[in-house]
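Hi all, a correction to my earlier message: I attached the wrong file for Peptidase C14 caspase domain-containing protein. Here's the right sequence:
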Amino acid sequence: MKISTFRFLLRGACVLLLAAAAATAGAQEQRALVIGIDTYQPPDGVTPANDGGRIDFPDLDGCKNDAQSMKSLITRYNFAESNVRELYDRAATRDAILAQMNALLADSKRGDLALIYYAGHGSQMRNSVGGEDDGRDESVVPSNTWEKGVSDIRDKELAKVFNQFIDKGVKLTVIFDCCHSGSMSRGNPVYKVKSRYIAESNFDVKDASRPVPPENRPNSDFLILSAAQDNEFAQEQMGNDNMPHGAFTVALLQAIQLHSINVPVTTLFQSLREILKSNGKRQEPVLTGSLERQRQNLFGVTPSKLSDDVVVPASLAPSGRVTLRGGVALGLGIGNELVKVNNENVRLRIVKLSGMGESEAEIVAGKPADVEAGSFFRVANWVSTTGPLLKVYLPASVSFKDAQQFATVAAEVRRSPKVSWVSKIEEQVPQVSVYYQNGKWMVESADYPAPQELGAFTAANIIKAAQGPKAQVRALYVELPPAKELVDAVNKKFADYKNLQLVTNASAANYVVYGTVSAQGLPGFGLKRLEVNISDSLSSMPLRTNYFPASAATATVMNDIADSLFTYALRLGKVRGWLMMAAPKRASFFPYHLELLNTATHKAVDSTGDHIGDELDLRLVANPDYLDKAIPTKYIYVFAIDKAGTMTLLFPLGTAGAVDNKFPVRGPNDQYPVAKTLIEGIQVIPPSGTDNYICLASEVPLNNYQQLFTQEGVNDGVPRGEPASPITSLIDMGNITARGPLPPTPANWNLVRLSVKTRYK
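and the right structure:
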């Protein structure tokens, strides 16, 4: 058993670790060290040493991108660029990493804030006297791990360094985006994506030391945000900048864009998790730390020092355009307009994103001489930067004739008493998986260290593989490839729809088209999350959709199935769109949040969620700062959206809305209301999962709100009879078929969310 939460989270596979201590008043300085390692292969012509038994040193793709994105992000938290140290690729040796950590420690004074960010491989090392049940220490892997005598940097070494920051009274934040476990996931092995794990080292360090885990230190205010649970990988994926990144870091950056910069870590974590799941990843993040630290912002910076304004430095390029030192990592998008600090008559418009930390703009007001080197510009408008609402991957296909033959064999296996057939992968973890990859049938189970070829796709071969050497009845999952005729129909159906994107790289997908066999022996096809984890059954996004049986390869049948998959993709995209949407940071003051009150207990629903059969009242409740300044009256619209994509308008109902939904309205004593009950007696009904309650507060009324916020399916266009205003086009996200980006939207609306897990009693 692991000796601490800190040790558990490092052992727990793929870790992003944040640690912090409370800030002190005064001249607080902020410093950072960012490390990103993609290059692990030794230089050409160099034979690697084999001290620890490693024979392969796989390179990564997105670690340097992540580190540079983090460097860009922390400028919003007042980290000066001159106070940021950087180590990339071959420069990030073991000695260099430890030296830079110690230099950061030496520079930091009591009350200062320090950040260490690491993206690269993680692993394990033998420690026969370390006191761990598995005899392993977890580690981060330096770029020169292939050199003779170079060991990993173990968790015990890191704990000692972190404790020195705590001893010195420095508020330390550490983020690790890497893996520490080589355990293989089960149930969805066909879509392999790159993970940040390298084989463990067999070199025995024989270190009997027991450093105090940093999170167990009294008054250290230490916080850990972990990317994944035990035996899970920290995976890479393509970001909206079309560059590889760590899936967790992508979700972290996107979550920050959804909220005020001072949002508590608990709220940020909830958004981060939902985004990670909506991006198709099975890894389960974990948040651990004191309640006081969780109430602070991400890095624990004094709130009064921060602003939601996004301000970036600019310089004039020889082409006459302006280079901005900010990009996707800061939430910038094409169409964003920026005004010069202290001279708003100079205005720029972003025309190109050059990466996570840079963009290109044109001058729309003013002249080139107004853009002096080092001048600063502030974002003045809002544009959507979420990219496509849903990305779908089409695996390699076979002819419908072959799909029928595979389904016939699978149906025979499904009926066999020698296997336990898994038809609902979201409810049962398979022990054996059979899938089609690169023209071959593969089998994966605990019987083999790696996937093995099945051979001929026959019932006898499948049952033999499922039963294993002990001839046991085990849970079997079989995934069939899609029919080529269906793939052609899907490509045609999705072609002109800008909010749904078919991708050629599985790691970029939120969902994939999967194949199965119906009880009647027909091949069937549906959508499934890229990765499936049974613990995700309560998430906002379903693990899979229903499948649609195919009786023939006729154009009518294939087009009907493609239409059904398209409709499901629209519903899923609508859910994901609301999870990802960020309201304008400079929107006017709206200090209220949503709350569900259980009518039986008269208590607010907390993080444990509600249960099917409960009766609830939905209220808007004032935040503690609601009396800080005047609150503009707005039109409020509240709806619920479940993980199946069903949207239900909750407020206003019927013909109300012209006046009844204006809020807040001052009372008789000219006081703002502390709370407003919007709807009473909500009955919680199936399905289980995460229900998202969303309040849109707009300075302008929405005449077609009943159509916009009530949905079983998704219509094919903007509702007839109403003009498509910018905000209407935005919130009707699932219905727009036009090409190109959404139009810029005025900063006159707020968005308030409440996510509640619903379970059966």
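Sorry for the mix-up. The radius of gyration is 27 Å.
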